[in-house]
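Bumping my old thread because nobody answered last time. Still need a sequence for this structure:
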């Protein structure tokens, strides 16, 4: 069994240990030994091939301690580009021009006894040696930990870090999994030096999930709530027709089964998943911390309990959708999760893992991750931007999260969110028409497939307002 010997400078050892574990052990599937050395760059060797070595610049983790977690440590644009057009047939890339988040082109002081030959910008070769000018470990740490979000003050009206403020959006790589591409460049160099290596086998997955903000349009709406909504139709929206239609629908649903409610489409969603060998995840709310943004429904309502049983009996997943104000409140997150666990236990529902997603995608580094880990959740799938679909973490692989304040990994896995239907279709966001949205989503899905990653799609049960939306969703879910 091959064991990598990875030599790095001594700075930021907890951070280095974390990212080496993620990239080398978890993603590529190799054991490694980390050793400190006095050089200013990083080196990789393999025990079976001691003569060959791969070198990379060590730039991000050379940040002075006084500048760590400050704006002075952020990459400055415009970022340099690595032209890999010559290698498109050998390295799976989404684009031949690769932005360098952190790195250094020239290998000064690296294997200085060898005659370097430059093949492409940021790529140098010598006999049995290779230098790739990307600080892959530093860049991966920067993207996965959401380092810039800790430093940058930008927030939207809902307290969210917007895509428009991110380095990825400003430098034009938000819609490509840049860290996956870095890993493929790293792997190409490894295979060149050590042809006998075999990396961890991965399988592409599509994971569909549904944030249950509003489980019913009318079935559990009280008379008082109906009157309130009718008042909004007449006074705020100035639409008597909307009020009439709402009242008629309310009466129809109340007189029939809850399955007649227009938002109660869970069985159809599960049917589509089962047709394509997928497992839907339904994330439920168990609290209301802000009535302006949380639809107040009870997980203990008989209709909701019956729904939980149906989802579980059909082999799909139940998860948590913490309420609006929880993202900075560990105690409330824990209380809402325990409320969900209690309801499921009463219905004899057991799962191997529990996860979910924050309401409104409200998330703050590292507090929200820490809250989830302390509450006992296994994974989070919040990290996509509301205003722009794409690769917020730069990757379509799951990964263990890291707490930038505690300087340690947490017992929580992040499953990055690639697409939310409201992001691509919403007028306030990307505002694509249905064909444009479908084309874009399928492109991102193909990228995830290219890297044998996880394509995550969020589509709210309350957003299927036309047959075309169902056709679009079904096309995305298909293999």
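Sorry it took so long. Here it is:
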């Amino acid at each position: 069994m091959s064991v990598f010997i990875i030599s790095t400078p001594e700075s930021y050892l907890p951070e280095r240990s974390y990212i080496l574990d993620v990239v080398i052990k978890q993603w590529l599937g190799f054991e490694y030994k980390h050793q400190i050395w006095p050089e200013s760059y990083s080196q990789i060797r393999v025990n079976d091939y001691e003569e060959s070595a791969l070198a990379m610049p060590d730039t991000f983790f050379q940040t002075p301690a006084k500048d760590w977690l400050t704006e002075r440590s952020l990459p400055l644009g415009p970022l340099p580009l690595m032209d890999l057009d010559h290698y498109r047939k050998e390295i799976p890339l989404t684009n031949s021009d690769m932005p360098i988040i952190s790195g250094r082109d020239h290998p000064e002081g690296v294997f200085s006894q060898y005659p370097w030959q430059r093949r492409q910008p940021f790529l140098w070769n010598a006999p049995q040696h290779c230098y790739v000018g990307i600080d892959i470990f530093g860049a991966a740490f920067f993207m996965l930990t959401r380092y810039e979000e800790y430093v940058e003050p930008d927030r939207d009206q809902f307290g969210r870090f917007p895509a428009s403020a991110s380095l990825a959006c400003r430098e034009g790589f938000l819609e490509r999994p840049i860290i996956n591409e870095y890993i493929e460049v790293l792997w190409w160099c490894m295979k060149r030096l050590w042809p006998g290596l075999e990396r961890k086998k991965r399988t592409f997955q599509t994971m569909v999930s549904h944030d249950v903000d509003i489980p019913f349009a009318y079935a559990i709406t009280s008379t008082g709530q109906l009157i309130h909504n009718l008042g909004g139709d007449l006074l705020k929206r100035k639409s008597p027709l909307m009020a009439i239609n709402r009242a008629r629908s309310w009466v129809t649903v109340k007189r029939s089964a809850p399955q007649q409610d227009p938002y109660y489409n869970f069985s159809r969603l599960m049917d589509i998943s089962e047709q394509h060998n997928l497992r839907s995840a339904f994330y439920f709310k168990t609290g209301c911390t802000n009535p302006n943004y949380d639809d107040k429904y009870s997980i203990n309502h008989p209709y909701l309990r019956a729904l939980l049983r149906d989802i579980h009996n059909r082999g799909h997943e139940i998860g948590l959708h913490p309420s609006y104000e929880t993202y900075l409140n560990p105690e409330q997150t824990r209380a809402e999760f325990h409320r969900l666990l209690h309801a499921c236990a009463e219905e004899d529902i057991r799962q191997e893992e529990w996860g979910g997603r924050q309401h409104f995608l409200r998330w703050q580094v590292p507090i929200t991750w820490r809250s989830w880990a302390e509450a006992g959740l296994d994974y989070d799938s919040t990290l996509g931007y509301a205003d722009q679909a794409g690769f917020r973490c730069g990757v379509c692989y799951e990964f263990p999260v890291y707490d930038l304040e505690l300087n340690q990994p947490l017992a929580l896995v992040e499953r990055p969110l690639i697409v939310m239907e409201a992001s691509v279709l919403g007028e306030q966001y990307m505002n694509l028409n249905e064909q444009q949205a479908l084309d874009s989503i399928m492109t991102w899905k193909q990228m995830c497939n290219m890297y044998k990653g996880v394509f995550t799609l969020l589509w709210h049960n309350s957003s299927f307002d036309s047959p075309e939306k169902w056709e679009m969703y079904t096309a995305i879910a298909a293999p």
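The chain has a mean pLDDT of 93. Let me know if any region looks off to you.
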